[in-house]
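Students often ask why we bother encoding 3D structure as a string. The short answer is that it lets us treat folding as translation between two languages. Here is a chain of 169 residues written in the first language.
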Amino acid sequence: MCSRLFALFLAIMSTAAFAGELAVSLEIPRLDVAEYHRPYTALWVEDKDKKVINLAVWYDVEMKEDKGEDWLKDMRQWWRRSGRELDMPVDGVSGATRAPGTHTVTFAEGVEPLGKLPAGDYTLILEAAREVGGRELLKIPFQWPPKKQETLKAQGKNELGVFQLTLNP
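And here it is in the second language, the structure alphabet:
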């Protein structure tokens, strides 16, 4: 009996060890402006049919009476694709705005919010919008599952800096 349980444990652990992973690094630059506000930021994956998997939405979650949600629509593409249909905040997805700097988040296959991705072509999308500022959208196309470790990049111009995706098989 113990050996069967041990074998089952090893099978589960080996499956988990080979699950794919998305490691995302994004840079929020410090802008030299008179009135600086941290950007609202949305990160999501789309398949070829434009089906959305929301990975992160960073906004002013602490604002009284959920007023921070009023400006989510400034991230126009995210709002049209999925934001307007969501009841914010979303567990495991919503979070506070981030300060200038480089931020890294990792998503494991089979674990929410990423879940289980079928094999295919996808696009990782990052959108940022800032009060009294601009808006920027960056995209990184990728194939899932990755056959080998691969790092892909996009470069922002104003609201975003380096946007990097590392795929781990």
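Translate back mentally: The first helix runs from residue 2 to 17. Keep this in mind for the problem set.
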